[in-house]
Amino acid sequence: MIHLHQLDNRPIFPSPHHALEEPNGLLAYGGDLSVKRLIEAYRHGIFPWFSEGEPILWWSPNPRGVLRLTDFHASKSLKKAIRKHDYTVTINHAFLDVINQCATIARRENGTWITEEMETAYYRLHAQGIAHSIEVWREQRIVGGLYGVVTGRTFCGESMFSLESNASKVAFYYLVEHMRKHRGAFIDCQMQTPHLASLGCTEVSRATFLSMLNDSHSHSFSHDVWQPSTIEVDL
């Protein structure tokens, strides 16, 4: 018999080590998507993932996909594409546009996992300076981007999109360079995919991930790191 923890109205989670092996990482259900609960979740390596019509499901998979900043692989073709298209890349200039674009991408057989409830919740996190977006522009048109949640010095990636070839990789490249500049720890990729693996994402055990996450909480980013701005990098 599978026992799954049901959350009540308190923003408290069971230990991630209690997550199920199958489905991998399912920890709890219920609760809400309040700012306080989401902050608590990400601080402990837990994230929500569910589809329309399902209860809120909370996950902490094992193994975990992570991108150590020193492991990031930017191919010559990616750098060439950046030079060729003369992109402008910004932070937090169009958070709603980014999450709306991400919500149009089908993640499961029954459609997107980014419900209206999720969009509203992450916009509240954004308004509190906790969720952030990276936007890729060409000729004043947004062509790619990503968004995620910052806890400590870790960026917990949630979703990315491309309207042009390589545009999401461009966003990822600029995010990595921005975090390197400001002494970020690592990027939580949640689950490794072939696309993320090609960029340098590797898998670590849940215990290792939680240790890395805890270490990243020893320092926080300064306030200006995630202020709306244009990211400049050397290619």
TrEMBL record:
Keywords: Acyltransferase, Cytoplasm, Transferase. The keyword Cytoplasm applies. Its main location: cytoplasm. Pfam families: Leu_Phe_trans. One of its GO terms (molecular function) is leucyl-tRNA--protein transferase activity. InterPro entries: Acyl_CoA_acyltransferase, Leu/Phe-tRNA_Trfase, Leu/Phe-tRNA_Trfase_C, Leu/Phe-tRNA_Trfase_N. It catalyses: L-phenylalanyl-tRNA(Phe) + an N-terminal L-alpha-aminoacyl-[protein] = an N-terminal L-phenylalanyl-L-alpha-aminoacyl-[protein] + tRNA(Phe); N-terminal L-lysyl-[protein] + L-leucyl-tRNA(Leu) = N-terminal L-leucyl-L-lysyl-[protein] + tRNA(Leu) + H(+); N-terminal L-arginyl-[protein] + L-leucyl-tRNA(Leu) = N-terminal L-leucyl-L-arginyl-[protein] + tRNA(Leu) + H(+). It is found in: Cytoplasm. The keyword Acyltransferase applies. Gene3D superfamilies: Leucyl/phenylalanyl-tRNA-protein transferase, C-terminal domain, Leucyl/phenylalanyl-tRNA-protein transferase, N-terminal domain. Its EC number is 2.3.2.6. It comes from the Bacteria. Transmembrane segments: none annotated. HAMAP family: Leu_Phe_trans. Belongs to the L/F-transferase family. Functions in the N-end rule pathway of protein degradation where it conjugates Leu, Phe and, less efficiently, Met from aminoacyl-tRNAs to the N-termini of proteins containing an N-terminal arginine or lysine. PANTHER family: LEUCYL/PHENYLALANYL-TRNA--PROTEIN TRANSFERASE (PTHR30098), LEUCYL_PHENYLALANYL-TRNA--PROTEIN TRANSFERASE (PTHR30098:SF2). This is Leucyl/phenylalanyl-tRNA--protein transferase. It comes from Fluctibacter corallii. The lineage of its organism: Bacteria, Pseudomonadati, Pseudomonadota, Gammaproteobacteria, Alteromonadales.
